[in-house]
Specification:
111 residues, mainly alpha
Length: 111
């Protein structure tokens, strides 16, 4: 059917957890790198101006936004899959318990 098996869900959960937790750090790294690059470019310029600083800061902020655009949906997807997996496990446990009870009742009837 269209339902993912629990093993597939666990693979997706692991991937989304990694993406959701690593992406902000990648964004932060890009931000720091971009700001350092902007200040480095400004130090070689003849005068400190907004025109010298703007491209590097713009790139740094773009990196931050890109990382957040990746991380936020990954965290929502992770939480969605985690909740659905917990529900599926509870349903499987309930089914197994019901089956076990029925088998035991049938075995007692046969004795």
């Amino acid at each position: 059917g269209s339902e993912m098996c629990i093993r597939d869900r666990n693979k997706h959960l692991s991937f989304l957890a990694n993406v959701g937790s690593v992406s902000p750090y990648v964004g932060l790294l890009g931000t720091v790198w971009g700001v350092m690059d902007a200040f480095g470019a400004m130090s070689t310029a003849s005068s400190a101006s907004l025109q010298a600083l703007a491209p590097g800061v713009s790139g740094a902020l773009l990196t931050t936004v890109s990382a957040l655009v990746v991380a936020i949906p990954a965290v929502f997807g992770y939480n969605y899959l985690l909740q659905n997996t917990k529900i599926a496990i509870i349903e499987l446990e309930n089914f197994a318990s019901t089956m076990s009870d029925r088998i035991e009742l049938e075995a007692r009837k046969m004795d």
